[in-house]
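Example 445.
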Amino acid sequence: MTKKPIKFVLNGREVQAFVSPDDSVVDLLRELDHFGARESCGQGLCGCCTVLIDGVSVTGCLELALLLDGKRINTVEGLDADGQLSAVQQAFIDTGAFQCGFCTPGFILMIEQLLDENPDPTDDEARDYLSGNLCRCAAYPEILSAVRNAAMKRKTAQGADA
Amino acid sequence: MSFELISPNTLRDALDLLDVDDPSIRPFSGGTALRLMMKSGVFSPSKLVVLRGIPDLSGIEISDDGSLTIGALSTLAEVETSALVARQVPVLAGALKHLSNRRVRNVARIGGAIAHGDPHMDLPPLLSALNAEVIVESRNGRRHIAVEDLVIGYYETLLEPDELIVALRIPAQDDWHSAYRKVTARSADDWPALGVATSISHEGKEIRDIRLVVGAATERPTRLDISEGVLRSEGVAGLPRAVEAAMESVEVMDDSHGSATWKKALLGVELRRSVEEILGRNA
Ligand SMILES: Cc1cc2nc3c(=O)[nH]c(=O)nc-3n(C[C@H](O)[C@H](O)[C@H](O)COP(=O)(O)OP(=O)(O)OC[C@H]3O[C@@H](n4cnc5c(N)ncnc54)[C@H](O)[C@@H]3O)c2cc1C
Ligand code: FES
Ligand code: FES
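Predicted structure in complex with FE2/S2 (inorganic) cluster:
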């Protein structure tokens, strides 16, 4: 199958790759040694494959890799680029919001988006926003605590910046 | 699987790439539905014509007559969060909140959600109840199709392989009030096991006109004309008879979301609730 060259920005770094028409974004990321987004259901239901494309959350198992040409993509690997975990990542550790961790990158990226849009979500708003992320270990109560905890951490950090 | 992915920059170029005799060349907007079909092997395209780069197919506008025009490439998330939609057709914004998840809504386009033709979709019955139409274009010109007439069977629509939906038009709702009741078997945002869309033009409890459409339980979105007739002539007093007529007249199908018997019982319950909800809400 004929591969085509594409160029895109992965976590702030320019990348070139050759991709087949039916490669998904997750397929491509694995070739680039990025394993944070992973395919589980493969049908858009579970969110384990979440990535951000041009700042918007997208289902990486469905999106075609060829369509990344010219775009910016962010994955969980880029969140601690400055050597420090993001508020959401730290909140997951502080609240113990995982067991096996398979679903964690997807949840973390979705919660980053949620808090960008809505810095102080109610539990119901968070549940609604995260309804497309499944956790087989059922860490849901802890994940909701992580949302509250991360919201607080972000507010404190902002206060410190101001 | 080998296919070509082409991203034209104008509507004209996109239309030129489509072929009325070749359904293996397919328009691709969000691709969420097509990708599921490709991954499960039920569809192998020869060419995908990616519509995302066409600038004049997005945007949500209101006309002087109060109707809304929504460009076919607007994402479901854009429609869900549009202030115009919230004001003119709040029922649509509400239904979108429980249509799949946020990531899919970020990518899926309104044109794709209408063109797909899967009977388990939330929007075709709702848009039918709202009396909406799509504006469709091919190299040979434009035509308007009522959403109600668009889906003619199981995954079958009136669209020709060389036609594109360019926009959705929702007329001003004036004194019409609507509800969409979605029943799911698993999570709240799952594919519907049943969808009941109801629009009523009324004054107090007096029903002037009504549109009732059922989806997801039937082979295609289906208008409940007998029940509508009963409610038009007998008013709200005819509700029990209208419910009975719906349950008797509609051919309900089993699927992985539930049995026909269950869905039929729910149809009665949800129809009654939706009429009561609208009349109660605007009493
Ligand atoms: C995890 C998941 C859950 C879902 N849950 C629900 C749900 O609860 N309720 C629901 O209603 N739907 C649900 N869906 C389906 C979803 O609504 C559709 O996949 C989506 O709306 C299709 O839009 P798209 O832009 O991605 O279409 P595409 O996949 O790009 O296209 C779909 C079809 O429309 C055609 N097409 C696309 N654009 C045009 C156009 N402008 N003109 C003519 N033809 C066109 C394509 O050729 C194809 O046949 C779900 C999907 C997923 C993946
Ligand atoms: S693997 Fe993509 S949503 Fe489940
Ligand atoms: S922590 Fe195991 S799936 Fe969520």
